[in-house]
Amino acid sequence: MKGKYVILSLVLLVLGFLISFSYQLTKEQRPTSSISSEQWKKEYETRSLLIKQEERNRELQQELFDTQEAVTKVEENLKDEKQVYFNLVEDVEKFRMYVGDVGVVGKGVQITLEDASYIPDGENVNNYIVHESHLFNVINELYISGANAISINGQRLARDSYIYCNGPVVTVDGNQYPAPFVISAIGNPGVLIPAINIAGGVTDQLVYDNIIVTVEEKDEVKMDPLLQDKKPTS
């Protein structure tokens, strides 16, 4: 009987030891589990913030791309408008030059028309001198070929200039000029000269009419603006 009590006491002692050990182990692990849970919570929150920030960064990046695209379109529009304004200013300058409001200078040509140096006996002298029709032929060909400004003996022509022949002299806008007649034109010599000298063109017609023709290229041709009382009226 006494042996049974001893064994029972040992069993109870071991059982008590195991219960105590289990309790201590659970007590020691509880804070660790609590700390791990808090760390996990913080990591989750941090990761969520990072994900939100990345999404916001992508949104901002897209906004930046959209803004850059809008700026590029505005710049292109401004460039187009600038080109339009430049073309308008250029056209205005050309028109002012055509009507004689401004002085002009540039490369060009000089065409001199002279009466025939020899008139056979019994021939009509009018068939050997320069007439307004000869001047018109030269002037029209120069304008058609792109001349920007033209003058006769220094008299700059306007859009409504009048030219007519009066015996041995030619009247240009009320001013009389004797031969030889020097027609100056500002424009591309590489275009104007071939246009004047083309076979069967103006020069050949003038020579056929017994007119002496001299065509020269000029590096610089100057023309003053028209005087106020000589400007064309609207």
From TrEMBL:
Protein name: DUF881 domain-containing protein
Coiled coil segments of this chain: 50-77
Pfam families found in the cross-reference section: DUF881
Similarity remark: Belongs to the UPF0749 family.
Native source organism of the sequence: Metabacillus herbersteinensis
InterPro entries in the cross-refs: DUF881
Keywords recorded for this protein, A-Z: Coiled coil
Domain of life: Bacteria
Cited PANTHER family: UPF0749 PROTEIN RV1825 (PTHR37313), UPF0749 PROTEIN YLXX (PTHR37313:SF2)
